[in-house]
Amino acid sequence: MMETDKRKVSAEEIERLFRFTRQHFVEHYDLQAELADHLANAIEERWQQHPELSFEDALTAEFKKFGIFGFSDIVEKRQNALTKKYYKLLWGYFKNYLKLPQVFGSIAAVVAVYFLLGLSAYIYSALLFIVMVFSLVRLFKIKKMYHKKTQSTGRRWLLEDIIFSCGGIGPMLYLPMQLNLHLADYYLSEPIRWGLAVFIAVVVLLEYTALYILPHNAQKHLAETYPEYRLLQQ
Amino acid sequence: MKNSPLYKGSLNTIIMKLLEENGRMYGYEITQKVKLITNGELSITEGALYPALHKLEAEGLLDVEVERVDNRMRKYYKLTENGEKETVNRLAELEEFIRNMQTLVNNKPNPDLQF
Description:
Structural class of chain A: mainly alpha
Number of domains of chain B: 1
Radius of gyration of chain B: 16 Å
Number of strands of chain B: 3
Order of helices and strands of chain B: HHEHHEEH
Structural class of chain B: alpha+beta
Number of strands of chain A: 0
Strand content of chain B: 15-25%
Distance between the termini of chain B: 31 Å
Strand order of the largest sheet of chain B: 1-3-2
CATH superfamily of chain B: Winged helix-like DNA-binding domain superfamily/Winged helix DNA-binding domain
CATH class of chain B: Mainly Alpha
Largest interface: A-B, 33 and 24 residues
Strand content of chain A: under 5%
Oligomer: heterodimer
Radius of gyration of chain A: 25 Å
């Protein structure tokens, strides 16, 4: 058969495929585009054998191949893969605080917290409270900003979603508070003070990375992950 | 993919081997290629293929390229430098596994294989 004789999926039908993926709970554009292309290829292949088949019938037959869970398994595993990537990025930035010359700043922060804790055990609670309030305010702000952006573009990208929800930083904020409940009444010995100082410094650096640095560099990481991202932003 | 867990364990290696041979491929092309090579004996299901591709990509073993083909975007996968090295390792591992299994199944004594 000549190449030109092949029945092709039209632009309107591609739109329909995007809608179809959305109806089946694929919320993110990156996966929608990949699945739409897959379905379009499969439908065109099917038309070679059965040219009389309607687009909708061909689509139904091809979707069946995805099994009873449809796209849900693919969506879930993509989420896991990109969450892993997010934590890799976070760790990549965090490692910088342990390198020269930043490591001097990190050590200075630990020493400063250590001396502050020497003044009173309540300083620990006060520091955590300040960090928590700042983090929550910032988290709320960037989430609002991101929501506005997705509303205007109409597209959501999974990695961007994860970056702007800070990889589920919420529960992390409660962890130091749990420790706080058990510590408040005790005298802080030297090793405990050092341990807490390191702990607070790590929490602050991680939150700073997740709340400021990663959202700030989001465009760069999105362009690296999704070659189509830059194309569509123009 | 056939339902057997024996095949599932080798899916990543099969994908990497295909990419090593063909340079870059898109998801649908991989499913068709496997069908073609095995004369339809083996078919990779969509539900298994994409999670495997996304995982390999997140691990830095695959890189992606996007191109506009007809009226849609097509996402191509190719091996990264790390991916190329890893393919060699995984293929060697798979071949060794096959050899050992053959020995075990055929029940011929192999001095290299001791429990």
